[in-house]
Amino acid sequence: MIRLALVVGAALCLLGCAATSPQIQHLQLSAGAAPAPQGDNPVIVLDHIDLPDYLLRDELLHRESDFALHYDSARRWAEPLDLGIQRVIGRRLQSSLDTQRVILFPDASSTPADWQLRVTITHFEATGSKVKIAGQGRWEQKNQVTLVVESVVFEDSQTLNSDSGEDIAKTMSQLLWKFADELAAAIPKRPALSDSHRSDEQSIEIETTHP
Question: pTM for the whole thing?
Answer without folding.
Answer: 0.80
